[in-house]
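Q: I'm writing up a methods section and want to include an example of the input and output format. Could you take the sequence below and give the corresponding predicted structure tokens, formatted cleanly so I can copy it straight into the document?
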Amino acid sequence: MEAMAKLAAVGVTAVVLSAVLRKNTPELALLLALAAGLWMLALTASGLGAVVELMNELAEQAGLSEVLLEPVVKTVALSILTRLTVEICRSAGEGGVAAFVETAGAVLALLAALPLIRAVAQMMGELLT
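A: Here is the clean output for your methods example:
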């Protein structure tokens, strides 16, 4: 709860300051948004480590190999990074670049998920025979 209060405070402060800066120096407003975003990501990084640790523990208990878990983690990470990049591009007024980033992110997520798709297809084939 404390972390969310910090995130909210930084977010609201960054938005207010960015709105003031955007009138005269839009470049500084974008840099402020980037700095605030990076600070917020750093604040949540320890939580991500705990999530990955739990996923590994659950996969071990379920008897799943890392080969199946790794594509899921990569796909989620790509999704988060794509979303953040797209929003930064849109904030900078670059909607066209944002669209290309979204498309590239989707393709990369599919590529990251290929081992999982392959494993599921293989399991289905084994079940059918």
